[in-house]
Task: structure prediction
Amino acid sequence: MVLSLIRNISWAPFAMNRKHKSPPKVFCVAYVAGSIDGRISESNRSKMHWTSKEDRNFFQKSLGKFDAVVTGHNTYRMAETRLKKRNTIVFTSKVNKPRLSGSVVFFNPRKSDFIKFIKNQNYKKLAILGGPKVYNFFLKNKILHELFVTIEPYVFTTGVPMFAGDKFKKYKFCLKSVKRLNKKGTLLLHYQYAN
Amino acid sequence: MVLSLIRNISWAPFAMNRKHKSPPKVFCVAYVAGSIDGRISESNRSKMHWTSKEDRNFFQKSLGKFDAVVTGHNTYRMAETRLKKRNTIVFTSKVNKPRLSGSVVFFNPRKSDFIKFIKNQNYKKLAILGGPKVYNFFLKNKILHELFVTIEPYVFTTGVPMFAGDKFKKYKFCLKSVKRLNKKGTLLLHYQYAN
Result:
């Protein structure tokens, strides 16, 4: 089912889905795990094994609800084995047009229209897994609807930031809930976009 | 009283206070207000008026408990009028030896021994108000005991990070409490250093 969805892609035109005069909106939810000081890893190529098992459990359970996940190329490489089994859209500048490999699509959002692609795929719910530029793409294009931020109780003082924008902006969110995941104090914050 | 304390500084030697064989430990608490993505302002020279009034109230009330506050030079300039009234230690590279101006001391931690200075002053409780390098100085020197982090419900995507270290480290903290300060979801997190 998962594979058949992705294989039905009609790559060539990326035409709007004509069945819907006003096509259903795609719902995008970002998942970010960071330190108290907003760092998500040491470098772009670090393996992401520093988060708590409680966060990993929450994250893995959450993904079941989505039609597809979106990651950057670095994030994809770190978790390739697991992501290969899902409908995964990998943002990369290394392709000029979408390239399909099993259930994974390598997609260049500078060269192809992402919104059209998503509508064409009939994807309703996307999980955005980062890194910073990918999160930023969704924010900038006003298609980031919810945000789950896990704050692990560390300060890193340097490293990769959660978001990498090219311009300071004040994107407003509204806090929906806070949950403490374990004794040491891993926090799960759930926000809704409010601009 | 406040002024007299700072005026009793014996600048010249910065000798250890010989009255105490094991002088009482100084207790340092950092206050940080940031966005969800760990940014504290647009630039080093931005005025810090973007935080909620609930956070500002909490912050102002908290400062009453401390013998002195510590800030960097940029942070000091942004809040000079208010800080002038307090015992304030301003970290700056622009002095070679401590320079006193009213209740404010301009202090170069690369040129003078900060721990000795604090002991000599008989300061027991310090509030650390940032910026990023100042917070980092206290972490690196293992004299950051508690941390209050206010998370305002915004994503900035760029700007000044909470901490500015020169090396990735995993400083552990333990969450003591979480408090929601207002309806939109400003959060106040209280951490204790746990390394």
